[in-house]
Amino acid sequence: MRAVEFETIPTVPTADELLDRSLRRAAAKKKLKINVDRANEEFVRAVAKAVHDKLENVVSSFPSFERLSPFYQEVTDILVSLDRLKQSLGAVTWAADRVMAIGSGYARDMRTAEETGRPRRQAVARIASVVHQVEDDLIYLNEARNVLRKLPHVNEDDFTVVVAGYPNVGKSSFIRLVSTADPEIAAYPFTTKGIIVGHRDIGKRERIQFIDTPGVLERPTDERNPIERQAVSAIINTADVVLFVLDASEHCGYTLDDQVRLLDEIRRIVDVPVVTVANKADIQGIEGYPAMSTLTGEGVETVLDLLLTYRKDTTQASLREPPQPETQE
User: Fold this and answer.
1) Architecture of domain 4-148 in CATH?
2) Share of the chain above pLDDT 90, in %
3) CA dist., res. 261 & res. 152, Å (int)
4) Which residues does 147 contact at the CB level (< 8 Å), separation at least 6?
């Protein structure tokens, strides 16, 4: 499953919005009945069905989280809590079933009742009470929907390069140079507030997928903020190869020793190749590491070619795009 499934989730109505729409729909059906008692019975059935169907639609519009990829499961849990989502969806399912039971029971009893106006009002009041019991769940689901629909599309079938490293080392700049992504670039830490995905065609039927992660700070997992945990999730669950970017100039604000310690941590937590490059080579390089400069473009295509050698799909070299000439400022 992909994030596109989150994009299709419709706005979740509040309790009052849901009840208002259902009552108006039921009132329209009631007008079609000439007999008052039959009209009241039809009204109760119509209200119950409309509310039930809308609540059921809320639940069914969310994907089955057990079928999501590990990446989407973990990111969803980080952003909105899978347990809370399941709890709210369960509460709404209960409300849908309860509303239908109330409506059916009252409508059945109204068939033999001497007066149907009072049970009609009682039925509507009880249905409204049930819906208001899950009002907080409806609000939460709509908030979760608004967050999840913004998740990027990550295609598990594409060869994926996750770009990692400390904040402000040039990860976003590299992604912008080699792919379709257009992340915000600025000279301050934590510019990247979420996961950015970009692609580059490397043949008629093949492309490489880049995931630009937020800056990951070297500290214990339980001390990392949600943005940093998203980065770790992306590294673990989506990468075919990790590109780790070092800044030897230390203009990023972190020492080279700290950056290398983070590199060692990432090597421990992934079982895919980790390619390490030194960015800002126009200022200072590191002996033994491939060098590039995302400022001048020097070495960027060379690094891209190096990454392509790790493709699991051994596509013929003739299908690859020829390297573009390096640009110099």
Assistant:
1) Up-down Bundle (1.20)
2) 44
3) 29
4) 79, 80
Calculate Rg over the CA atoms of the chain.
Answer: 28
The amino acid at 247:
D
What φ, ψ does residue 161 adopt, rounded to 5°?
-110, 120
The DSSP code for 284 is -
Q: What share of the chain in percent tops pLDDT 70?
A: 86
Per-residue tokens: 86: 């399941």
Question: Could you tell me whether strands 159-164 and 274-279 are parallel, antiparallel, or unpaired per DSSP bridges?
Answer: unpaired
Would you tell me how many other CB atoms lie within 10 Å of the CB of residue 327? 11
- Going by the DSSP 8-state scheme, the letter that residue 310 receives in this structure is T
Domain with CATH 1.20.120.1190 in the chain: 4-148
Closest CA to 72 of 166, 3, 168, 159: 3
How many whole angstroms separate alpha carbon 306 and alpha carbon 308? 5
Distance CA 300, CA 296 (A): 9
- What number is the average pLDDT over the span 260-279? 92
- Mean pLDDT across the stretch 128-141? 98
Q: d(Cα 42, Cα 39) in Å, to the nearest integer?
A: 5
Which residue would you say has higher pLDDT here, 84 or 158?
84
* pTM for the full predicted model: 0.77
Mean pLDDT of 8-35: 85
- CATH of 159-319 given 3.40.50.300, 3.40.50.720, 3.40.50.1370, 3.30.750.24: 3.40.50.300
Residue 105 tokens read as 């029971």
* pLDDT of res. 3: 52
